[in-house]
Design goal:
The chain is α/β, with parallel strands linked by helices and 795 residues long. The chain is 52% helix and 9% strand. The strands form 3 sheets. Strands 2, 3, 4, 7, 8, 9, 11, 12, 13, 14 and 15 form an 11-stranded mixed β-sheet that branches. It has a two-stranded antiparallel sheet with strand order 1-5. Strands 6-10 form a two-stranded antiparallel sheet. It starts with a helix and ends with a helix.
C-alpha cells in the first residue's frame, strides 16, 4: 500500500476506483437496526444521542456527496457542447508525455473533479525514499520493543537477587540483541526473502500475503479465507472480552488483553485506511481539496459531536446501593462527635492507658495514666498505597490495644482500598491474603479491556453492552465497574454495604474523593460529619459557607445524598481512587433523580489525607480538653487520672529522603513571579506542611488547658508529654537501593518483597527514635512505627 501510493502520488496518475456510497449508508443502517433490537430485548443500554451522532455523520456525508455529484452532472449536461469537448481533447493531445496532465484532474463518473490542484510532478526517484522511510518505521517497532526490555529489567537485574536477577539479565540481553540485530536483518536476509517470496508464483498462502503486501491491494479473485483464518482468533477473543471480561482478562493477562485490544483497534483503523486510500474520496471531500478520505478526522468528529450531544451521559454512573437506604438506626447515622464520646467512655480507654513516665502523679496520690487517641492518614499511590496501608495498619491492629487506640483513618486513592480490605476482612491474616490476590494482574487487565473495548464502543456508538460475571443488577459496567468486580471476586467482603454493619475494626473511616468542576473535597465517611440530621431535606452539594462540615472546601458525601448510603465498600473506596484514564470519573445520581456530581481521585486535591485530619482536629481536641479537665476534676485522692493525648500517624508509601539544608540561591528577576507562585502554592499541600500544622493543633495546651482551680493539672500535663513525646509518627520506606513499587494497580513479587522488607525494618526496635539513636533518620517531635508499637503494646 505504501509503495503503491508513493508511485501514484509521484507519477502524476491516479488509478484508484471511484468512490462508493454503500458503506456510508449500510453501516449506519446496520448499527441502527442492531441498537433497536438490543434495546427492545433488554440486551443493551443505548445512549441515543451518541448513537444518533454515529449514524448521522456518515449518512450526512454520503447524502451531501450525492447532492454535489447530482449538481455537477446536471451542470455538465446543460452546459456541455461539442466545441468545448473538442477544445478539451486538443489540450490533452498537445500535452507532452513528460508534462502530461494528471488523469486525476479530469472529472470522475459522478462529474466531480478529484482535486482543485495538481499532484506533484513526475518524480519516480522519490518512491524508494518513501518505501525506505516506511520500512524504517516498521523495523523501529521491533527495535523499540527490545529497548523496552532493557529499560524494564535493568533495575531488577542490578538490585534483585536469586533467580529473578538471572531472568532479568537474560531479558536485558535479549532486548539488546533485538534492538541492534533487527536493523541488519531487515535490510539483508529479511528483505531478500520477502522479495523472493513475493516474486514467486503466489500459489501458497505465504506467497499470496507477500504479493498482496507488495501490491497494496488484493486481486478481485483473491480468497478471503486466509484473512478470516488470521483474524478469527482475534474476533473470538474480542467477543469474549466484551461479554465475559473477567474470565477472559484473567486468562489472557494484562499483556494479552492489551495486545488483542490494541491490535483490534489497529486492524479496524488499518482496514478503514485501506478502504479510504483504495478509492477516490467522496465529492464532499474533493470539494474541499482533499486527496484521500480523512478517516481519523471523521472518527474524532463523531466522538466529539456525540460527547457534546450526550453531555449528561450516565455511562460512568456508580453502582447502586446493595442494601436498604431508608432503614432507621443503620450504620453511618452516628455523628463523629458522638462516636468520640463513646470511645472516651469505653472501658478499653482506661484499660489500655499506659502509666506516665517515672510514675508521675497529679497530686494527692493520683497516678497519671496516658491513653493515645490515634488518627491515621493513609496516602494515595495505587496498589502500592493499598498494600502499604493494609500491612501497616494490620501491624497496629494485631497489638493488644491497637484495635481500640485508633479512632479514625483518613485515606486517599489506593490507601482507601487497603483500608476497606482490612476493615471488611474477618481477620488481619485474611486481609493480607485478599490484598495479595488483588495486587495481581486481573483488575488491571479488566480495566484495560473496558478502556479499549467496552467503554470505547459505548462512547462512540452509544451501545452499552452487558457483561457476564457482574453483581446482580450491574451487568452494564464501565471499566471502573470491571475493576470493582475483579476486586470483589478476589475479596468477597468488599461487596458488603458501606458503612459496614459489622466491621472488624471500630475505626471511623474517611475516604477522600474530589468533585470535578468545584474542586471540593468529598468525604465518604461511616459517621456523620455535619450537623444535618438523617432524613432532613438534602442540601446542594457545596463546599462553600453553606457546608456544615468542620473544614473548608469539603462536604459530607452521605449528608448530601443519603440515598447513596449502603453502596458496596469497594464502590465507596473506588470513588476515592478514580484516577483517569485507567479508571474514569464516577457519576453519582443524588436523591429524587438529580445529578449530584462527578467524582475523581481525592489526590487531585490532597494526596496525603492529612487535610481532613487537620480540619477535624480542632473539634476533636476541644472534646479532649473537656474530657481531660473532667478526669482531673473528678479523680479522688489515690484514684488514677487517665489523660487522652491525640496522636497523628502518617502512612507515606514512598521513600522519604532525609531532609538536608540547601544553600540559598537567587532567582533571576524576570522569573521571580513564576517561581514564587508555583513554589508557594505547592508548599501548602505537601505532607510536611500539613504535618507541621497538625503538630501545632495537637501540641501543648490543645488537649489539656490548665486553670488555677484545676489541681495537679500542670504536673499531669507534663507527665503526659514525657510519656508521649512524639505526637506525630511517620511510617514510610527507607531510602535505599531497591526496586521502586509502581503507582498502578499491579504489584510484582519483587515490589511486594521490597515493601514488606521496608515495613519489617520500620517495626524493629532498632528503628526507634527514642532513645535518640538514629538522629539522622529521625526528626524532632516525629516518631516511627517502632515507637508507636512500643506505646500501644505497653497498654
Amino acid at each position: 500500500m505504501r509503495t503503491r501510493r508513493a508511485n501514484e502520488k509521484f507519477s502524476g496518475k491516479d488509478h484508484r476506483r471511484n468512490p462508493g456510497y454503500l458503506p456510508w449508508i449500510a453501516v449506519p443502517a446496520i448499527l441502527a437496526v442492531l441498537a433497536v433490537m438490543l434495546w427492545l430485548t433488554g440486551a443493551a443500554e443505548v445512549g441515543w444521542w451518541r448513537l444518533s451522532a454515529a449514524i448521522a455523520a456518515p449518512v450526512l456525508i454520503a447524502v451531501s456527496s450525492m447532492a454535489i455529484a447530482w449538481r455537477y452532472r446536471h451542470h455538465r449536461a446543460s452546459n456541455a457542447d461539442a466545441a468545448s469537448r473538442r477544445r478539451w481533447l486538443a489540450e490533452r493531445l498537445r500535452a507532452s508525455p513528460g508534462e502530461e496532465l494528471a488523469s486525476h484532474q479530469t472529472p470522475d463518473r459522478d462529474g466531480v473533479r478529484s482535486l482543485g490542484r495538481r499532484l506533484p510532478k513526475r518524480q519516480l526517484e522519490k518512491v524508494p525514499s518513501v518505501r525506505t522511510a516506511g520500512d524504517g518505521l516498521a523495523v523501529a517497532v521491533a527495535a523499540v520493543t527490545g529497548l523496552g526490555l532493557v529499560r524494564s529489567f535493568t533495575v531488577p537485574a542490578l538490585l534483585a537477587g536469586g533467580g529473578y536477577a538471572v531472568a532479568s539479565w537474560v531479558a536485558v540481553a535479549i532486548g539488546i540483541i533485538v534492538a541492534t540485530a533487527c536493523w541488519p536483518l531487515a535490510n539483508g536476509p529479511a528483505r531478500k526473502y520477502l522479495r523472493r517470496l513475493a516474486d514467486a508464483r503466489p500459489a501458497r498462502v505465504p506467497a499470496r500475503f507477500a504479493d498482496w503486501a507488495r501490491q497494496g491491494r488484493m486481486g478481485k479473485k483473491s480468497p478471503w479465507w486466509p484473512w478470516l483464518l488470521v483474524g478469527g482468533p482475534f474476533l473470538v477473543a474480542d467477543v469474549c472480552l466484551l461479554f465475559a471480561p473477567l474470565w477472559t482478562a484473567h486468562w489472557l493477562g494484562v499483556l494479552g488483553t492489551t495486545v488483542i485490544a490494541v491490535g483490534t483497534l489497529t486492524v479496524v483503523l488499518a482496514v478503514l485506511a485501506y478502504m479510504a486510500q483504495d478509492r477516490r474520496p467522496l465529492p464532499l471531500f474533493r470539494m474541499i481539496r482533499l486527496n484521500v478520505t480523512p478517516v481519523i478526522t471523521i472518527i474524532a468528529v463523531i466522538g466529539l459531536v456525540g460527547a457534546i450531544a450526550d453531555s449528561q451521559s450516565l455511562v460512568h454512573v456508580i453502582r447502586d446501593p446493595v442494601g436498604s437506604t431508608t432503614a432507621a438506626g443503620q450504620p453511618g447515622d452516628t455523628p463523629l462527635q458522638s462516636a468520640l464520646q463513646s470511645w472516651l467512655t469505653d472501658p478499653q480507654t482506661a484499660a489500655c492507658a499506659v502509666p506516665a513516665a517515672g510514675g508521675a502523679t497529679a497530686g494527692a496520690g493520683r497516678p497519671v495514666r496516658v491513653e493515645p487517641l490515634i488518627v491515621v492518614a493513609a496516602a494515595g499511590g495505587g496498589i502500592r498505597a493499598a498494600w502499604w496501608a493494609e500491612h501497616a495498619l494490620a501491624q497496629i491492629a494485631d497489638t493488644k490495644c491497637g484495635p481500640h487506640d485508633v479512632f479514625a483513618v483518613s485515606s486517599v486513592s489506593g490507601g482507601s482500598v487497603g483500608v476497606a480490605v482490612l476493615d471488611s476482612a474477618p481477620t488481619t491474616a485474611q486481609a493480607g491474603t485478599d490484598i495479595a490476590r488483588m495486587a495481581g494482574p486481573d483488575a488491571l487487565a479488566a480495566g484495560i479491556d473496558g478502556l479499549l473495548l467496552h467503554d470505547l464502543i459505548a462512547g462512540y456508538t452509544g451501545l452499552d453492552l452487558p457483561s457476564a460475571q457482574m453483581p446482580p443488577g450491574q451487568q452494564f459496567s464501565d471499566r471502573a465497574g470491571l475493576i470493582e468486580s475483579a476486586w470483589q471476586s478476589e475479596d468477597g467482603n468488599l461487596g458488603e454495604p458501606f458503612p459496614l454493619k459489622h466491621p472488624t475494626l471500630t475505626w471511623r473511616l474517611l475516604f477522600n474523593s474530589a468533585a470535578v468542576g468545584s474542586g471540593c473535597r468529598v468525604i465518604i465517611a461511616d459517621s456523620r460529619l455535619s450537623g444535618t440530621p438523617p432524613g432532613s431535606s438534602q442540601p446542594d452539594p457545596t463546599c462553600d459557607l453553606r457546608s456544615a462540615v468542620p473544614g473548608g472546601g469539603s462536604y459530607d458525601f452521605f449528608a448530601m445524598a443519603s440515598c447513596r448510603r449502603n453502596i458496596a465498600a469497594v464502590t465507596a473506596a473506588m470513588l476515592s481512587a478514580r484516577f483517569p484514564y485507567i479508571t474514569p470519573s464516577g457519576v453519582v445520581m443524588g436523591c429524587h433523580g438529580r445529578l449530584m456530581g462527578q467524582f475523581v481521585d481525592g489526590g487531585y486535591v490532597d494526596s496525603s489525607g492529612l487535610i481532613t485530619l487537620a480540619d477535624l482536629m480542632p473539634s476533636l481536641t476541644g472534646t479532649l480538653r473537656a474530657h481531660n479537665a473532667m478526669a482531673l476534676a473528678q479523680a479522688r485522692p489515690g484514684q488514677p487520672v487517665t489523660l487522652v493525648v491525640p496522636v497523628v500517624v502518617y502512612l507515606g508509601n514512598s521513600s522519604r529522603p532525609v531532609p538536608v539544608a540547601s544553600a540559598v540561591s537567587l532567582v533571576q528577576e524576570p522569573f521571580v513571579p513564576i517561581d514564587a507562585m508555583s513554589a508557594a502554592g505547592a508548599e501548602l499541600q505537601v505532607s510536611d506542611t500539613l504535618l507541621q500544622r497538625l503538630m501545632g493543633l495537637t501540641g501543648d495546651g490543645q488537649w489539656l488547658q490548665c486553670v488555677p482551680a484545676l489541681a495537679g493539672c500542670a504536673a499531669a500535663g507534663s507527665a503526659a508529654q514525657k510519656t508521649v513525646p512524639d505526637q506525630i509518627f511517620f511510617v514510610s520506606p527507607h531510602v535505599q537501593p531497591q526496586i521502586s513499587a509502581p503507582l498502578g494497580w499491579v504489584l510484582s513479587a519483587a515490589s511486594r518483597n521490597a515493601l514488606n522488607t521496608a515495613l519489617y525494618v520500620e517495626a524493629q526496635p532498632a528503628s526507634r527514635c527514642l532513645p535518640a539513636s538514629h538522629a539522622v533518620q529521625c526528626q524532632p517531635g516525629v516518631g516511627r512505627l517502632a515507637d508507636l508499637l512500643q506505646l500501644i503494646q505497653s497498654g
